[in-house]
Structure formats: structure tokens, C-alpha cells
């Protein structure tokens, strides 16, 4: 287990907007599902592309940036290079995401502007993280993963901006090839490797696990990095064999990651199944289902399985992985800032007391049912299941935001 120190943690008022805006986009993403038409869902449709950027940029990236602002200096045990820069990152990412979402749906002319604003916010983030890492003489595995993932993010946003310019008609590019490089850089290279690296800090910390080998994680990150790089080069050089090598290496990375997570959970002394534990169980189960659906797609070459795999990966794995950790991260940050100075002076709450039981359970139940219903709706092209699943997701999103505001304002 990696050592955690709060000595270099930034103030919570810096982190809170990332989580609150991320929650807002999570609810907005559930509403966006109502725009889908089950009979003619294709991954190139404006509604699907708009939803993807709404969810990944607005919820996933916004929340990860907030978590990274907190965890990077804590794990490195050095202060941020320029912590004030984070006050500029979330407004730029917010504006850029909204411009891109509206651009994909209604006005492609907005895409270059939205893409540029997102590019600026992410370049500030990547630059700040790189300069913070530069202050450390020796990197551990976790921070090496952060360095690798942010390098992929850098290339991913460049590919994305080029695609936005091409989509708007400003330049001429083969969007299908650039799309592969963009998607794999961001989802596999940045989000995937970031989750691998940070979960090996957060999961042991929240389950109290320790004394496990990091070798499986090292192998997993290496294979995933090589896989992502191979897919990127296949797109840029138009070499098909590199694409399949990249997919194979990426799939091969997952068993090693699942193995170390299994070891952590098997050796954990804290056995109770709280909202964090059941969220993690659902998230990892969803990852397995997404992987199986992806394999079926490669065997049958039917796009419906690719769409279902992406959906389960996004809302099932990313969604529950992030919301589950929010139920631990926010109480921890609020407790440390608001209540830790009172230790030994007066009665203070436990971290578990700061998590609202009813709304957190409601969020899990509604959201999990929604993910399952929409998955079957995509596979069966059922409009009824799609709208039913979207309704469950919406109420789950509201419960999540309610829980988050309760934890942030806990007194």
C-alpha cells in the first residue's frame, strides 16, 4: 500500500467545483439518453458523439481532474507547481464541453471553438502535472502511470482538435482513422491507465489492504501502454496489423489488473459491503461484461455489440468506479479540513456518518437498473426499454447529486 500524507493537499474549495460540476454533467448525461432512438443507434450519429463527449469530458474528466488535483501532491509528497491554475481549468473545461456538445448536436461551426477551449484547459492540466512531477527525484509506479496517462492525454486532445476542425469543414482529414487514435488515446491511454494507477492507491486505502505485490499492476500498465501506442501508430500509419496487436495487448493487460484487485479485496480486513464496496463490485462486473461484448463484436462484426460494450464501459464501469470513490473521497476531504482540527477537543463524526445511507443506496439501485435496461435496449433495439432505463438513470443521478451535496455541506 502506498503511503498517503495530507501535508501537501490543496484546499477543498479548489477541489469541490470539479466534483459538483461533474455531478451536474452526470445528471445531464442521463437526460441525454432520452435523445437516443433505439432503432437507428450508430456510433457516428451526432446524438451518440455528443453524449460521449458530454459524459467523458463533463463527468469523467472533470471528476478525475479534481481527484488528481488532490492525489498527485499527496502521493508525491510535494506541493503543486501552480495550484492556482486549477481555478482556471474547471471553467475552461466546462465552457469547452458545452460548446462541443451543442456543436455536435446543432452547429458544427462551434466545434473548433469548443475543441480549442478544451485543449487549453487540458494543456494547462497536463503542463501543471508534468511540472509537479518534475519536482520529484524518483518516481514510484503510481506516478509513472500518471506520467504515461497524461502523455496519452496530450496526444488524444491533439487528435480530437484535428477531428473537430475536420468535422467543421476547416481542414480535410480521414476522420475514421483519426477517431481510432483519439478514442484509444483518451479512453485506453488516459482514463484506463489513470484508473489503474490511482485505484492501487485508493482501493487499498479504503479497504485497509496491504502487503501485496505490485508486479501484476506493472505488467498490466506496460501491456496497456504498448497496446494503446500500437493502435495509435496503426491509425497514423494505416497499418491494420498494428491495430489488432494493440487490441490484443490491451485485452491481455486486463487479467493482470483484475488479479491484483482480486488480491486486494481477498486480503482486506474491512469486510463490510458499504456503498463503496458494492459500487466497486458492480463496476468490475460491468468491465467484464463490456469485455465480453467487445469480443462478440470482433467475432460477429455487428455494431450493436460495440455500442452495448461502450455503454456498459461508460456508465457501468467508469460511472460506478467514479461515483463509488466519490462516497469515500469527499467525506475524507471534508473531514480532514473541517473536523480534524477538533480531534481530542470535542465529539466529531466518523467518515461513515457523513455518507447519506438512503440516497446513496437509491443512487446505486436506480443507476444499476438503468445501466442493465439500457444495455438490453441497445441489444434488442427496444425504445421502451431505452426510455425506461433512462428514467432509472435520471433518478439515480439526482440521488447521487443529493448525496454529494449532503457530504460537501456536512456540519
From TrEMBL:
<feature type="transmembrane region" description="Helical">
    <location>
        <begin position="187"/>
        <end position="207"/>
    </location>
</feature>
<keyword id="KW-0812">Transmembrane</keyword>
<feature type="transmembrane region" description="Helical">
    <location>
        <begin position="113"/>
        <end position="133"/>
    </location>
</feature>
<protein>
    <recommendedName>
        <fullName>NnrS family protein</fullName>
    </recommendedName>
</protein>
<feature type="transmembrane region" description="Helical">
    <location>
        <begin position="85"/>
        <end position="107"/>
    </location>
</feature>
<feature type="transmembrane region" description="Helical">
    <location>
        <begin position="245"/>
        <end position="265"/>
    </location>
</feature>
<keyword id="KW-1133">Transmembrane helix</keyword>
<feature type="transmembrane region" description="Helical">
    <location>
        <begin position="48"/>
        <end position="73"/>
    </location>
</feature>
<feature type="transmembrane region" description="Helical">
    <location>
        <begin position="277"/>
        <end position="300"/>
    </location>
</feature>
<feature type="transmembrane region" description="Helical">
    <location>
        <begin position="357"/>
        <end position="379"/>
    </location>
</feature>
<feature type="transmembrane region" description="Helical">
    <location>
        <begin position="12"/>
        <end position="36"/>
    </location>
</feature>
<feature type="transmembrane region" description="Helical">
    <location>
        <begin position="219"/>
        <end position="239"/>
    </location>
</feature>
<feature type="transmembrane region" description="Helical">
    <location>
        <begin position="312"/>
        <end position="336"/>
    </location>
</feature>
<keyword id="KW-0472">Membrane</keyword>
<feature type="transmembrane region" description="Helical">
    <location>
        <begin position="145"/>
        <end position="167"/>
    </location>
</feature>
<feature type="transmembrane region" description="Helical">
    <location>
        <begin position="385"/>
        <end position="408"/>
    </location>
</feature>
Amino acid at each position: 500500500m502506498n503511503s498517503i500524507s495530507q501535508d501537501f493537499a490543496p484546499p477543498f474549495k479548489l477541489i469541490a467545483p470539479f466534483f459538483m460540476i461533474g455531478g451536474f454533467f452526470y445528471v445531464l448525461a442521463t437526460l441525454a439518453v432520452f435523445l437516443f432512438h433505439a432503432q437507428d443507434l450508430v456510433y457516428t450519429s451526432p446524438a451518440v458523439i455528443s453524449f460521449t463527449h458530454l459524459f467523458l469530458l463533463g463527468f469523467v474528466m472533470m471528476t478525475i481532474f479534481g481527484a488528481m488535483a488532490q492525489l498527485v501532491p499527496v502521493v508525491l509528497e510535494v506541493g503543486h507547481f501552480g495550484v492556482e491554475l486549477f481555478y482556471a481549468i474547471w471553467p475552461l473545461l466546462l465552457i469547452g464541453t458545452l460548446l462541443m456538445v451543442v456543436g455536435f448536436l446543432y452547429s458544427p461551426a462551434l466545434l473548433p471553438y469548443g475543441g480549442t477551449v478544451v485543449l487549453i484547459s487540458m494543456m494547462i492540466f497536463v503542463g501543471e502535472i508534468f511540472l509537479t512531477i518534475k519536482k520529484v527525484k524518483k518516481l514510484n509506479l503510481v506516478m509513472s502511470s500518471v506520467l504515461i496517462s497524461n502523455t496519452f492525454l496530450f496526444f488524444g486532445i491533439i487528435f480530437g482538435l484535428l477531428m473537430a476542425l475536420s468535422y467543421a469543414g476547416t481542414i480535410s482529414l480521414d476522420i475514421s482513422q483519426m477517431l481510432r487514435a483519439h478514442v484509444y488515446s483518451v479512453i485506453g491511454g488516459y482514463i484506463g491507465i489513470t484508473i489503474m494507477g490511482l485505484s492501487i492507491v485508493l482501493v487499498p486505502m479504503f479497504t485497509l489492504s496491504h502487503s501485496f505485490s505490485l508486479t501484476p499492476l506493472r505488467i498490466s500498465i506496460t501491456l496497456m501502454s504498448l497496446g494503446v501506442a500500437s493502435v495509435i501508430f496503426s491509425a497514423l500509419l494505416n497499418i491494420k496489423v498494428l491495430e489488432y496487436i494493440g487490441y490484443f495487448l490491451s485485452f491481455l493487460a486486463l487479467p493482470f489488473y483484475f488479479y491484483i484487485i482480486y488480491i486486494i479485496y481477498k486480503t482486506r480486513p474491512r469486510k463490510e459491503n458499504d456503498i463503496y464496496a458494492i459500487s466497486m463490485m458492480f463496476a468490475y462486473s460491468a468491465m467484464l461484461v463490456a469485455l465480453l461484448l467487445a469480443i462478440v463484436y470482433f467475432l460477429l462484426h455487428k455494431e450493436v455489440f460495440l455500442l452495448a460494450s461502450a455503454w456498459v464501459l461508460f456508465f457501468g464501469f467508469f460511472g460506478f468506479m467514479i461515483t463509488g470513490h466519490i462516497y469515500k473521497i469527499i467525506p475524507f476531504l471534508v473531514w480532514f479540513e473541517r473536523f480534524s482540527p477538533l480531534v481530542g477537543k470535542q465529539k466529531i463524526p466518523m467518515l461513515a456518518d457523513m455518507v447519506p445511507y438512503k440516497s446513496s443506496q437509491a443512487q446505486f439501485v436506480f443507476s444499476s437498473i438503468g445501466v442493465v435496461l439500457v444495455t438490453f435496449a441497445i441489444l434488442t433495439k427496444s425504445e421502451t426499454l431505452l426510455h425506461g432505463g433512462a428514467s432509472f438513470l435520471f433518478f439515480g443521478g439526482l440521488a447521487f447529486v443529493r448525496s454529494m451535496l449532503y457530504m460537501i455541506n456536512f456540519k
